[in-house]
Write a structure and sequence with these properties.
Largest sheet: 8 strands, mixed
Helix content: 25-40%
Number of helices: 18
Distance between the termini: 90 Å
Bound molecules: adenosine-5'-diphosphate, magnesium ion
C-alpha cells in the first residue's frame, strides 16, 4: 500500500504539453510578444514589407504576413519543433549571432498556447506549403495559391491558459503594446515597410524609405524630426549612430528613448544614463531627451542570451559602450550651444567686456520692451509695487553671470547664485496664477494660424480639452487627422516655442486625463517654456529686473517644480574658507 504524504506531492515528469506551456510562458506573455517573435522571423527572412493584423486586441487573431525568403515545403513542420532553427548550428555560433532569432523556440511556444497556421512559399521555387499547429500536433494543410513569403496566423491566444488571460490588459492596452513593438522595429529598420491594423482599422504604417528621419516624423511629428541632431561615434570597436533631440526638446519620461543593439531593440539603463549624461545641466530634472540610437558591438562582446525575449542585454565592456554613446551625444549637444567659449567662461563682470556688456538685447528673445513687460513693468502698470518680502529674500545687487546660466549677486548675508531659468519660471508662474488662479491667460492672436503636428494620443486629448486650452491662452482646434490649427497662443510665450508647448500640454492631458491640478501643471509648463533658458546671456539690466520681480513672488526660493532658484554662499562660510575665522 502506498501512503501519500498529504503535504507533499511526489516528483513527476510534467506531461509534454504542460511542459511546453510552462516554457512558452517565458517567451509569450501577451499579444505583443507574439508579434515581436513573428516580426523578428520576418526580418530574419529578409522581408521588405510586413503587415500585422490584430482582432480583439490580438486575443482572437494575430496575423503577420511578410514577403521574405519563405520556408521550403519540406521544412515547414520542422519549424514547429522546439529548438529547431536554421540560424545556429554549433555552440560557437551562439557567440556570433547576427540574426534576431536563434533559439528555435518562438513557433513551438506560440503553438503551445494558441492555434497557429503557417503558410509559406519560397520565392525562388514558386511552390508553397501550409501547416496547422496546436500543442504538439502539426498537421499539413493543402496549400492554396500562396504569395511569395510567409504568413503566420495565430487564433485564440491563451484560450487554453486561463491564468495568462487574466494578466492581459484591456484590448486597447494590448493594441498599444503591439503598436510599441511595431514602432520600434520600424525605427530599427527604416527600409522596412511595416503596417499595423487593428479590427480592420489602420493604426500605424512606416514609409519604408530607408531614412530614419521619416520614421521619426511619423512617430513624433515632422517638427521634432526636423530638429533632431545626428550623432556618430566610435570607441574601441563600439559604433554609435542615430538621432537625438537638442536640449530644448524634451519629454517627461524616457518612453521616447529607443536603443537598438546590433539590430535588436534593447532596454538597458546604462544606455539611458550615458545619453543623459551628455545633457547634464542643459535639461531640467525630470526631463528626458528623445532619441533613436543604434549601437553596433562585435557580437562576441555582448550577451543577448540573458533573457528569454532577448530584450535585456549584457555588455562585456560596459565602459567602452558608455564612452562611445556619451561622446557622440555630447558632441551633438555641444553643437547647439550658442558660444562654446562662453559656456566654460568664468564670471563675466559687467563693464569689463563680459557677456553683460557686449550682447545686443535684441538677440536675447528678451528685447527691451518685451523683457520689461514680463519682468518688471507689469506691476508698475497695474498699480503700486507689491509689498517686498524682505523676510523671504533680501534685495540683491547683481554682480554678473556665470556660464550664461547663473546670476551672481551680493546680498546682506553673502553671495547668491541664482539659476536664471528657475527664477524666471517662478516669476512667470506667479504672474499667471497667484493673482487670480482661474483668470484666463492673456492670449496673443496669430496673424497666420499655425499648424502643429500631433501624435495620436495628443490629437485625441485635443478633441476633449479645447476649452481648457482657451483658458490658458491657446486657441487650438483639431486639424486634419493628426494636427492642431492654432489661432492664438499665450502672450507670455512669445519668445518660446508654442508648438512644443502645446504638444506638451496635450501630452500631460493624455497621460493624466482631466485631473484637478491639470491647470496648475499646465501653467507650470507654460512658465517653463516662456522662461529664459540656460545658455542665454543676459544684460545687466535684465538680471536686475529678474531679481526684482523674484523678490515680489510668493516663494522666491523655489521654482514651480519645487527646485531651488538660488543658493547662498554665506559671509561666514567665505570667512571660514579663506581662513579669516577659526
Ligand atoms: P528561430 O527564429 O529562433 O530560429 P523560430 O521558432 O522563431 O526560431 O523559427 C524557426 C525557424 O522557422 C526559423 O529558424 C526559420 O528558419 C523558420 N521561419 C520562421 N518564420 C519564418 C518566416 N517568416 N520566414 C522564413 N522562415 C521562417
Ligand atoms: Mg524566431
Amino acid at each position: 500500500m502506498v501512503v501519500m504524504d498529504e503535504r507533499r506531492a511526489p516528483i513527476r515528469r510534467l506531461d509534454p504539453s504542460l511542459a511546453a506551456k510552462v516554457a512558452a510562458g517565458e517567451v509569450i506573455e501577451r499579444p505583443a510578444s507574439v508579434v515581436k517573435e513573428l516580426l523578428e522571423n520576418s526580418i530574419d527572412a529578409g522581408a521588405t514589407r510586413v503587415r500585422v493584423e490584430l482582432a480583439e486586441g490580438g486575443q482572437a487573431l494575430i496575423r503577420v504576413q511578410d514577403d521574405g525568403r519563405g520556408i521550403p515545403p519540406e521544412e515547414v513542420e520542422l519549424a514547429f519543433q522546439r529548438h529547431a532553427t536554421s540560424k545556429m548550428a554549433a555552440l560557437d555560433d551562439l557567440f556570433q549571432i547576427r540574426t534576431l532569432g536563434f533559439r528555435g523556440e518562438a513557433l513551438p511556444s506560440i503553438a503551445a498556447v494558441a492555434e497557429v497556421e503557417l503558410a509559406s512559399c519560397c520565392t525562388d521555387e514558386g511552390r508553397g506549403a501550409a501547416v496547422g499547429a496546436h500543442g504538439a500536433a502539426v498537421t499539413r494543410l493543402s496549400p492554396r495559391g500562396l504569395p511569395p513569403g510567409t504568413t503566420v496566423t495565430v487564433h485564440d491566444l491563451f484560450a487554453a491558459v486561463p491564468a495568462r488571460l487574466k494578466y492581459l490588459k484591456s484590448r486597447s492596452g494590448e493594441v498599444a503594446a503591439v503598436q510599441s513593438v511595431v514602432a520600434h522595429y520600424a525605427m530599427a529598420y527604416p527600409a522596412l515597410r511595416l503596417s499595423l491594423y487593428s479590427d480592420g482599422r489602420p493604426i500605424f504604417s512606416s514609409p519604408g524609405s530607408g531614412r530614419l528621419e521619416d520614421v521619426v516624423a511619423t512617430l513624433y511629428g515632422a517638427d521634432v524630426a526636423a530638429r533632431m541632431l545626428p550623432i556618430e561615434g566610435e570607441h574601441r570597436g563600439t559604433r554609435v549612430w542615430g538621432l537625438v533631440t537638442p536640449p530644448d526638446i524634451s519629454r517627461p519620461s524616457r518612453a521616447y528613448q529607443s536603443f537598438f543593439l546590433n539590430g535588436r531593440w534593447v532596454r538597458n539603463r546604462m544606455l539611458a544614463v550615458a545619453l543623459e549624461d551628455a545633457y547634464h545641466t542643459h535639461l531640467m530634472v525630470g526631463r528626458h531627451p528623445i532619441c533613436v540610437v543604434y549601437l553596433s558591438v562585435p557580437p562576441d562582446l555582448v550577451d543577448v542570451n540573458v533573457h528569454p525575449t532577448k530584450s535585456e542585454v549584457k555588455f562585456l565592456y560596459d565602459r567602452e559602450v558608455f564612452a562611445a554613446l556619451r561622446g557622440a551625444a555630447g558632441a551633438a549637444v555641444l553643437s547647439t550651444m550658442p558660444e562654446p567659449g562662453k559656456v566654460l567662461g568664468g564670471i563675466d563682470l559687467p563693464g569689463e567686456g563680459g557677456a553683460g556688456g557686449e550682447i545686443e538685447q535684441g538677440d536675447l528673445g528678451l528685447d527691451a520692451e518685451a523683457s520689461a513687460m514680463p519682468l518688471a513693468a507689469r506691476d508698475e502698470a497695474v498699480g503700486p509695487a507689491p509689498r517686498r518680502r524682505a523676510d523671504m529674500m533680501p534685495a540683491l545687487r547683481v554682480l554678473g553671470q556665470v556660464n550664461s546660466l547663473y546670476i551672481i549677486a551680493e546680498g546682506p548675508d553673502g553671495v547668491y547664485m541664482v539659476d536664471q531659468h528657475a527664477a524666471h519660471e517662478r516669476v512667470i508662474f506667479d504672474e499667471l496664477i497667484a493673482a487670480a488662479p482661474d483668470r484666463p491667460v492673456e492670449a496673443q492672436f496669430l496673424l497666420e494660424p499655425l499648424a502643429v503636428e500631433l501624435s495620436v494620443a495628443q490629437f485625441e486629448a485635443l478633441e476633449t480639452c479645447a476649452e481648457d486650452l482657451a483658458g490658458l491662452g491657446f486657441a487650438a482646434e483639431p486639424f486634419g487627422a493628426a494636427a492642431a490649427l492654432v489661432r492664438a497662443v499665450p502672450s507670455i510665450l512669445s519668445a518660446g516655442d508654442p508648438a512644443e508647448t502645446l504638444r506638451e500640454l496635450l501630452e500631460g492631458r493624455a497621460a493624466r486625463g482631466e485631473v484637478a491640478d491639470w491647470r496648475e501643471r499646465a501653467l507650470t509648463t507654460i512658465a517653463c517654456k516662456s522662461a529664459v533658458k540656460a545658455g542665454q546671456p543676459l544684460a545687466l539690466e535684465e538680471m536686475r529686473q529678474l531679481l526684482y520681480r523674484l523678490e515680489t513672488t510668493a516663494r522666491p526660493r523655489t521654482c514651480p517644480h519645487g527646485r531651488p532658484t538660488m543658493i547662498l554662499l554665506s559671509a561666514s562660510q567665505l570667512e571660514r574658507e579663506f581662513g579669516r575665522r577659526g
